[in-house]
Amino acid sequence: MTSPYDIEEIFPDDAAETVRLPRRQAGSSPQGLTVTLLADYTLRNRAWLPSAAIVALLAEAGVSEAGARTAISRLARRGVLEGSRQGRRSSYRLTAAAAGFLSVGGSAIVSPVIAEPWDENWTVLAFSFPREQAAQRRALRAQLRWMGFAPLYDGLWVSPRRFTGKAREQLAGFGATMTVFRGRHLEPEAGTGRSPLDAWDTAAIAGRYESFIATWRPVLPRLHAGRIPGPEAVRARTGIMDTYRRLPILDPGLPSRLLPPGWLREPARDLFVAIYDGLAPNAQDHVRAVAAAYTGEALSGIGAHTVAELAAGLPA
């Protein structure tokens, strides 16, 4: 049974040759926060941010100066950020490769999950790798999760979704030996088998939805009253994206009749949209002000996008 705490990657791993995005951690890492921060305000135009401004914004989120500078340096080495220098001032922006994967990943994260009509058949995918290809195996597992599969057994993954031509394209090039078929589940002798549904820990995922709503719903009254200043708006907006982005990856997208009653996917998304979009004006103004303090001029390329814009696909 897969648990939410076993998922390693936030974004698909098909960028492995050019960019290595931060792995998911139990909490928010400085690298993860840095990527979220830059994606939230510079993804549309790949705008440059002074490194001092990035450090200052991360300090408002509780990251030390040393931790922030280490995160920036590591992200640059991993191909996520690229730097430039004008005199004594250094600036960074997302690389073209990172922006591309973040745009695609961001669209997948915030788009509504629409379960397909189900014919009661399961797609079953078995794969194997030579032992020395551990990295390729991890990459394939990450991709399969993004495609709605979950591991019923080691090397045997299941999904209620049809195996389409797009799915074939997404799995091409991983170098694994694969077998794919689709059919109905037949229950063996009573008490000796596992249902394909057991591949998902729906109780744990439901708990994550409940925790998300309990954490973020109290923000709404202050947001509606206009009582969230710029620095707090940036922290909250980064925080809610950093938290919410894990949920659609965990959600199996199963047909409603296979899910527990009262599934909180839609209420959680509605709450995310209300807060993320509602905080955008104050957060954008604050990021621009912090950047201007180090450049001496307004940086018009800095801009907050809405959930709808991210879902539609930002240019990268």
Q: How would you write the strand order of the largest sheet?
A: 5-6-4-7
> Radius of gyration over alpha carbons?
21 Å
Question: In CATH terms, what is the architecture of the largest domain?
Answer: Orthogonal Bundle
What share of the residues does DSSP label as strand, in percent?
A: 5-15%
| Biggest sheet features | 4 strands, antiparallel
Termini distance? 37 Å
Mean pLDDT: 88
> How many domains would you count in the coordinates?
3
Helix content: 40-55%
Secondary-structure element pattern, one letter each: HEHHEEHEHEEHEHHHHHHH
Tell me the CATH superfamily of the largest domain: Winged helix-like DNA-binding domain superfamily/Winged helix DNA-binding domain
User: What is the CATH fold-level name of the largest domain?
Assistant: Arc Repressor Mutant, subunit A
Text of the CATH class of the largest domain: Mainly Alpha
Low-confidence stretches: 1-26
* Secondary structure: number of strands: 7
